[in-house]
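Obj.: predict assembly geometry.
Materials: sequence records (below).
Method: joint structure prediction, all chains together.
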Amino acid sequence: MMEIRLWVVIGIMAVVIVGLLIKLHSVRKSTREITDAFAKRLVTDTNILIDVAGRDRHVRQLAAELNVQLRKLRELRHRYVQGDVELKNAVTNISHDLRTPLTAIQGYLDLLCQEDLSEDGIRYVEMIKNRTEHMNNLTEELFRYSVLLSEEKELAKKPVVLNAALEESVAGFYAVLTERKIQPEIRMPEEKVVRLLDVSALSRVFSNLLNNALKYSDGDLLIELTKEGEIIFSNRAKELDEVQVGKLFDRFYTVEAARKSTGLGLSIAKTLVEQMEGSIAANYEEGRIKIIIFFPE
Amino acid sequence: MEYVLTTDELCKNYKYCKALNRLSMHVPKGAIYGLVGRNGAGKTTLIRLICGLQEPTSGEYTLFGRKNTEKQVVASRRRMGAVIETPAVYTDMTAVENLKQQYRILGLPSFEGIKEILELVGLADTGKKKAKHFSFGMKQRLGIAIALCGDPDFLVLDEPANGLDPQGIIDIRELILKLNKERQVTVLVSSHILEELSKFATHYGFVDGGRIVKELSAKELEASCRKCMHVEVSDVRILARVLDAKGLEYSIWSENAVDIYAQIGVTELVGELLTEGCELYSITEKDESLESIYVSLVGGGGDA
Amino acid sequence: MRKLLSANFSRLFHSKVFWCCWAVMISLTAIPVLYFNRLWNSAQVRFLYGGDELLPFVSAVLIGLFLGTDYSNRTIRNKLVAGHVRRDIYGSNWVVCTVSVLIFHVTSLAMVLFLEYLLSGSFYRLPKNLFAGILVSTFAVVAVSTLLLFVSMLIQSRAIGVVVTIITGLFLYGSGSKLRGALLRPEYISEYISDGKGNLLFDGNVLNPNYVSGVRRDIYEFLVDIHPVGQILQFDECTELPRAWVLFPVYSVIFTIVIFFVGYYLFRRKDIK
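Observations (raw structure tokens):
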């Protein structure tokens, strides 16, 4: 009799221990699942929340609490994306709407020019024409920028020889640069550096950067191409400082010293470079500003 | 361009017919993709394959970047919700119980959010009514609610407007648009009514005979609608003569009305008509109807 | 699979079908015991448990209806779209069916033993025989449930599925009891003749023409040993254990595994509508 009772007790204890071990394993597995799931949800652009397979009440409560926070995060993300889209649409519409009155103004200005005016009058009309043209350029840039951002245009990537592309862009600007008394210096490696890029986008980037150099340079311009695929535009610019250089790529940031600029040129360049899977950065050292573009292979 | 779903030469053979014949399609992220085709063209079969109900005979598809042959495709499936053919609801349970059941199947840790989903689809006040007492429209909504339980990133709806009254169709359309805009849910909707789809789809895939005949975006579809000038004149025959002389394509509607499928110089036309002694009453620009595009792409009426 | 188990069990314990079947099982098990007690003033249960012939039917009804609902409502789609694989769906369904059948089995056994003890103060069988009977019948019942699951999962319609499972249950019981019945026929029949005065005189023993013998008997014996219902019936009315009863659970386990995996492979390749 005693023996049976002993065996029964041992049996029950064994069952209890096995049960607890199973439960422990299950809870461990569930917490690991939650950790993985949480990490993934934060990084992926997804709507789904965490789910757990285990039945343990506390584990599920943990997951439920995490889900509450994930839900809030998700809402914020949705609102941001929606707002961003709406903002881009608004910018496109506004820049579009500005064209109509501007065209009218320019039309009438042309008529006005043909009238008999006093000397002062002619001067005033010239100034107005100048300013209107500037406004026109601004609107065009704004429109092109909004189109660039909102439309996901497929870039036509072809193998491009960076050496030749760079030379071509600089050659195009040579006349303007010498007019401003800026002597460009180009350094390139012997071998051809080839990357998969969109030709027109690349030339846009280069011309925007060269324009930038025109505005900010004190008199020199150094353009380097390295064989790792880095393109560096650097020049002396004593009027700038580190803080301003850091903000150069922000939309609409314009440095006081520059005239006739929108500040969009560099932002457009940045967007295009990133669309081609490259990177662009600017830094300021010892009175020189350096803009570095990198296209990995 | 990120694609939520791509299929690559999918084939599905049943005993006596080839339902899918090398079907390849691409659903971009954030799109509302309209799958258009006649009854029996293979839309439902395609959806069944994508949802994992059946295996393809050959070919493969990719969901959120994972192939259907990989084990991790299960994680991609978790991001999907689907209503296939008839809504799959437990008829002897209430709406809330149905959603709770789906929550358990998904493994969600709490029943939070059930009320919001029911409000979203418009079933908030069904209380203790069992699903077998629901009207057809309500069952459809419940089916969609079940599909939305897991907060999907990709929603697949198989002919959701089927059997719904006009208000129901509007409600579904509004719901799809809302989900797409506010929650960035990509939606795949199959239908044989292009008119209805054209009100909200951003991309189209035309299915016929088990393959995708054409895939285009809404903008491209609009552009390909042939523009025509609808002209009303006093004498159609004179107009016909004039147009023939120019070698322009046209079709005659009646004694007074003609559709011209080309760009014409209006001043020139009017001048010539005047000399011939024909009066021009009105000119309007028209778009080719979506029906005619549909028919030209997918073939004549009747079932496949 | 745990998610599916949670969902299935919640549906099971909320379904009226389950509780009705269980109530039917319990009552129809208890009633014969009480009736016999009334009749013979003894609740000595000669059958292993009053409801062994009921279990295949009641289980068939439950499994057919419960699993068939997933097909008739097409809710199996929800499970597949949510990402669950066929293995998990089949496995979780097997667990739920087996658990519910075991619940029926254990509770009706307990009910019978309880009534027997209550009304008679003791058990008809020796503890060893009882234990053996319970062990064998538990494994046999699992085998039955696996077979019913097999049938139910492969028929994509609830109405047809229930009919076929009930027929399967009938077949199981019918074939089992027929085999057993055939083996129970005695080898010799005593013949009697009348002596004209209303008395019957013993005339000798004669060979029973219906007696199953030879190779046929061997086959029948083997079949009744592997047949789940046959195994259970062998424990009826016996004061001693059937020979080689230890092998019975082994046969049941083999039966279960074979049917399970055949059903699984067929289910995996099935096209779901």
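Conclusions so far: Chain C has a mean pLDDT of 84.
To do: check interface contacts against the pulldown list.
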